[in-house]
Structure prediction request, 951 residues.
Amino acid sequence: MAARTLSLTPPRRRLAADSRLALLLRSPVALLSALVLIFLLLVAIIGAPLLQDLANTQNLRLRFFRPFSLERGWAYVLGADALGRPMLAQLIVGARTSFLVAGATVALAATIGTTLGMVSGYIGGVVDAALMRISDIIVTVPSLLLALSVLFVLEPSILNLILVLAVARLPIYLRVSRAQTLEIRERVFVEASRALGKGTSSILWRDIRPLVVPTVMTVAMLEIASVMLAAAGLSFLGVGLQRPDVDWGTIVSEGREYLTRAWWATVFPGLAILVTALAANLLSNWMRASGDPLQAAAMGVTASREEAARP
Amino acid sequence: MTTEILKRPAGETSARPLLSIAGLRVRYGRTHAVRGIDLDIMPGESVAILGESGSGKSVTGKAVMGLINPPGKVAGSVEFDGMQLVGRSEASLRAVRGPGIAMVFQDSLDALNPVFSIGSQIIEIFTVRLSWSGQQAREEAIRLMLQVGIVNPESRLDDYPHQFSGGMRQRICIAMAIALKPRLLIADEPTTALDVTVQAGILKLISQLQRDSGMALLFVTHDLAVARQVARKLVVMYAGRVVERGPIDDVFHRPAHPYTRALLGSNPGSVKHWSELKPIAGNPPDKSAVFTGCAFAPRCPRAVRMCSEREPDFVTVADGRQSRCHFAQEMFDGR
Amino acid sequence: MLKFLSVRLTTSLIALTGVMVIVFFLARLTGSPASLYLPVDATDAMVEAFNRQNGLDKPLVSQFVDFVANALRLDFGQSIAQQRPAATAVLSAMPQTILLAAIAMGLTLLLAIPLGTFAALSPNSTLDRGITLFSLFTASIPDFWFALVCVLVFSVSLGLLPTSGQGGLSSWVLPVATVMLHPVGVITQVVRGAMLETLNAGYVQNARARGYSWRRLAFRHALRNAALPIITVAGDRAGGMVNGAVIVSAVFAWPGIGKVLVDAVYNRDFAVIQAGVFVVGIAVILLNILVDLVYAAADPRIRVS
Prediction:
């Protein structure tokens, strides 16, 4: 009969991460999603500085230049907008802003939210109550309305957009990390650390953080898509970014004016958002499934249809 | 030695077995939960499957019911009353479940639906399976609850599972299992989650119901003392295989397999003083391991070289007594 | 249960008060609306008169005291743009939005529950993969862009549906579809996840051992238990439909709280912003209490304790 082992050290995640990478290589959809995201990211980082000037080059002779023609070179393959600016170049420049806003927002919200959530969950008491009420306040107001009124006050800028979105997304990380901290706090290895006289900050950093971070990462991946959609929505409503800053939402909003004359000015930037958000969602969905032992076991084996049909 | 003799211990050859398991295997990917077992149960017979956690005993019970979910795979043969159950469609298995084979699970809180009242869950059996009217089903539900020892059943029909004690909940699970008068009841560690005092009552109830109704019983447990209270025949499982079987009291007094003997030595109920308790050295084997010899050899005090090279066959050591050990006869003779 | 509800109500009201304080000062930060409502060459005297008329000349603190005192009587002042009480302007727009949200949520559940259930019934099958892809797809479409593309296809090209405004039944199709878009995807995923768990639960296996059909197992035994997380997320998303209403108002010029709020922000119509946030906040709180009640009805363990 196996002796029960009491784990006094936090479990290690190293092995899991390695086998996860192996699983990723075996899942075509997840792998494709990851490759699409990496490709778009590279295009945004490398392409945007190169195409910045071209994207802003107005050429009234090319107003509403139709897409799918190489007559004018690659930049115009997706057509041109109302001012004759090449759509493809605009999309690439817009990609950089969209990725920057989404990435920075998620990083900011995740870092602050997780830190607050861990402190809130571990310390409890007044701090916890106050943080939870603040999170309630943020959740009570529909996020779009909150962002709309704040951004209307502040000047439209990338930084302000990131700040507003980060505040609106804070409660998610706060709650996820708080809930998990509450659970980890009671585990044996944390109690052992406490008994050894470790300080609060040391326990939070060394014992709790390593276990909270993987969950937060999964949430953050899911949030990339949501934030990108939210940012685009705000730009579409005219309070997100304004020229010369441009993101995919801004381009949709500009194209909308000529919707019936030049569908491509609206459709392509929206498609860019859709593809990016879908890739991020597929990847995070896969991350969630592979993190769940029940589903991960099933992913390795393909069940026959008749067996699968059983409840 | 032919399989025919293996499957039919002498003295019980007259009638056809109610349940006949042959070469049953269950695996999950590379994990082998059951590695080929044979077992017959005669009508009205009570059999206990004994084994450590991970020995495949519970999986065997579920496989008989057809409750192995993908990615689990079942191979071999399970015949119930002459009907092959392995590979049968879910729809036709449904007819067997309930009136043919019924099951009681280990965790009664988990086994009852938390959002429906006890009454509605029992009544549902009759209205759905027998198309009875609500009134008739209600009366039968009350009668059943009385039968399993629930006091004031009428007043408790509308209560929810979490409002009952563990013992009462398990009684309700038993009532639901016997509702359709099954010919075979599979009880999967039904008392493991209960206090010892409550355990005895449940065991007595199962025994009594089995005797009164004449149904067969397959009782899965890790506790030999518990097995002795309800079963006549014992099957000992180790690493997905049957290692010993025979009449339970005979096996208890004269184990013919080193593993059974070790189990007896590690059983708190069988020794006079706790210092006599001898835990079995080593750990249960890895379920993904492939064995060339006897699976118990690494932990076996008697193991010799042959044990890890060649898997022993069943050896009949006495009437109705078989053991899968190269030294079965010596063990049986007490050498 | 009553104690739970009263605690819930109290914390919600504290949150709402916090929101009102923030909105009040935030709205003042947008600058005086005088510049928006008076001619460019307005004299200082005209601006002063405008401010006095709208109570904007007093110190911020005394404006706030007045605001709180009036808010307690549900008086949020006059809408500058609409020249009628702000509360009236907001409340008259609410039924439109509530109806839109109710229809959209009803259809969402009608679609998401079967989809999520069938996906969970055969995990990792082609059907499951297809449904998962569909749900992730709808959750990934920018809703404003979806609305525009629908206008392009169904209104401009095919001429089937009106582009804007609110007329007959057909004018509801695109707004409802736009508002539903994200909730359908998200709730299908939640249904699938919850059903995967409950279908593997002991009570479903036990019910299966009693010989019930898969329909009974899935739609009665498993779904009733999976209902709890579904209710939570559906409530959450119903509150979030105000976001959808904002988009719908921007694309389809659809009347409702979305349009009132967006117009108020652009017009610096403080009174309406405050009344709007208050009313929407109250609506969200009521919705949460409704969710708690449905939750209790669905789970006897909560109801009894």
